[in-house]
Amino acid sequence: MRRGLLLLWKNGLAYLLSLLTASLFFPLILMLVEPDSTYGWWFMLILFGSGMASVLIPELLIMVLFNIIVFRAGKMFAGVVQYVLLGVFLTGVFFLGRGLLYFNGDWGGLLLNILLMSSSGGLFGFYHYRLTRTGRSLVAR
Fold first, then answer.
1. 95 in Cβ contact with 113 (< 8 Å)
2. In degrees rounded to 5, what are phi and psi of residue 97?
3. pLDDT, tens digit, for every residue of 78-87?
4. Distances (CA, A) of 125 to 70, 103, 108, 129
5. What mean pLDDT value characterizes the chain?
6. What percentage of the chain has pLDDT greater than the value 90?
7. In this structure, are residues 130 and 79 in contact, taking their beta carbons and an 8 Å threshold?
8. What is the DSSP letter of 35?
9. Cα(14)–Cα(140) distance, rounded to whole angstroms?
10. Rg value, the chain, Cα
11. Is 124 left (phi over 0), alpha (psi -120 to 50) or beta?
12. ∠ CA(16), CA(22), CA(11), 5° rounding?
């Protein structure tokens, strides 16, 4: 029971860290795409947008699938690169399918959305590895 709660805590922390990292750095990219926008607008949009059910529920399902794959495949996921690639792949495939389902002819927007979402999946994979596999904290001692 304690191990399950610890894993749930570490997954939640990895999700929150990846969300915070994405909301701090992705506005810089988005401001290049939309020159009349502001950093604060994109920051708030990313933070509050992830709380929408249409984004949050798929992200939680992807996290569950991520954990199932990592713990079933065990030794196949030995390094941080495998975790990052798995996060990129899972979020990229899901949000590509979702983006194509609601596609409105904006190829640039679709590509940007897929790149940003798959990058946030990679961030989750990185933080998940650092929190669950290394036994160390995120800050070097």
1. yes
2. -60, -45
3. 889 999 999 9
4. 10, 27, 26, 6
5. 87
6. 36
7. no
8. T
9. 17
10. 16
11. alpha
12. 25
- The SS3 assignment for 134 reads coil
| pLDDT tens digits, 63-119 | 999 999 998 887 788 889 999 999 999 999 998 988 888 888 888 888 888 998 899
Distance CA 125, CA 69 (A): 12
Least confident of 9-18, 63-72, 101-110, 120-129: 101-110
CA–CA separation, 96 vs 10, rounded Å?
27
Let me know how long the chain is: 141
Tell me the C-alpha distance between 70 and 110, whole Å: 28
d(CA 107, CA 114): 11
Residue 101, both tokens? 């389902």
H helical segments located in 34-79:
39-49, 53-73
Listed in sequence order, the residues at least 6 apart from 118 whose beta carbon sits closer than 8 Å to its beta carbon are 87, 88, 89, 91, 92, 95
State both tokens at 25.
Answer: 């750095």
